[in-house]
Write a structure and sequence with these properties.
The protein has 312 residues and is mainly β. The protein is built from one helix and 29 strands. A hairpin with a 6-residue loop joins strand 3 and strand 4.
């Protein structure tokens, strides 16, 4: 295992969560953060292998893994999960259900999202994954659940040229569709639970809301205001790089966002030593043990210089 920091694949988990359904999950321990709690696996030993640094953030299924959940007869459920190295055979209530890739969910470090629909025939239904491979982020949600907003988007401020995000957390049956607007004008490209604005300009200032809809109905969030301030002359880091734990051989990017009088110049360091040709705002070091270390970046312009916080 190649260590960038003590956090366990946090950015991967974040992306996986982004593409999970946001509704009430019937599965216990769907992300396997507490190892096998709530699950049964084909016995014994090698048939059950927990993966992930510092305690397990996914599970390696060998032969089968299953969980019994409370259901309502006649209700249709959306089954969603992430898998790597295999596409499992999925049974819901003893019946094999058709599995298809989740539209719009990108692969993350070799993980892919899949989903299926299953209809419950009793008050207790067993969800079972068959085959051998890695499994994570398992969700089972009733398709008829109405939308409720659990966390409203919050107001933000940014320097011109900076970056901001607005996020809403919603609860409801899949699929929830998102449409963000600024001052009641839809942003056609902003159709996820989180909207990222980069290279912010004064024209981006305004009131942001998001319309959420599913098969049951639609709900509009409260408004969040974006305030844009003039860019400072000296460089200012608005997003520091984050370290992580990365399996050897996988791609990982260290990123910094800064504002200031152009042009901005970047120089990355590892263990306080300048890295040759590392002069962009994004650094992708080879993920092997020789590149374990503490990274930071110096940002300069004609008015001054500033260094980022360290990323391990």
């Amino acid at each position: 295992m190649f260590t960038f920091s003590a956090r366990r694949l946090a950015w991967m988990a974040l992306l996986l969560t982004t593409y999970s359904t946001s509704a009430t999950n019937l599965i216990v321990n769907g992300s396997f953060e507490n190892l096998t709690m709530g699950w049964q696996f084909e016995c014994c030993g090698a048939h059950k292998s927990i993966g992930g640094a510092a305690g397990g953030s996914y599970v390696e299924v060998n032969t089968w893994g299953k969980q019994e959940i409370n259901t309502q007869p006649g209700t249709v459920y959306n089954i969603r999960f992430a898998s790597r190295q295999y596409i499992p055979v999925v049974q819901f209530g003893g019946e094999i259900v058709a599995v298809s890739p989740t539209t719009g969910a990108p692969a993350v470090m070799g993980w892919n999202y899949y989903e299926a629909l299953g209809t419950a025939t009793s008050n207790s239904t067993v969800l079972e994954f068959q085959g051998t491979g890695w499994l994570d982020d398992v969700w089972v949600v009733a398709t008829s659940e109405p939308i409720a907003v659990l966390a409203q988007p919050e107001s933000r401020s940014s320097f011109a040229g900076g970056a901001v995000t607005f996020t809403v957390v919603a609860d409801g049956g899949p699929r929830i569709a998102y449409q963000w607007s600024r001052d009641n004008s839809p942003l056609t490209w902003a159709t996820n639970a989180t909207v990222l604005l980069t290279n912010v300009s004064f024209s981006d200032a305004g009131l942001y809301t998001v319309l959420m809809s599913n098969a049951v109905g639609a709900v509009t969030s409260a408004g969040a205001t974006l305030t844009v301030e003039p860019t400072p002359q000296e460089p200012l880091i608005v997003l520091h790089p984050n370290g992580d734990v990365v399996p050897s051989g996988y791609t990982f990017a260290l990123t910094v966002s800064a504002v200031g009088e152009a042009p901005l110049r970047f120089q990355w360091f590892r263990d306080s030593i300048p890295i040759a040709d590392a002069t962009n705002r994004i650094l992708v070091p080879p993920s092997d043990a020789t590149n374990t270390g503490t990274y930071f970046v110096r940002v300069e312009n004609n008015s001054g210089a500033v260094e980022s916080l360290p990323a391990v």
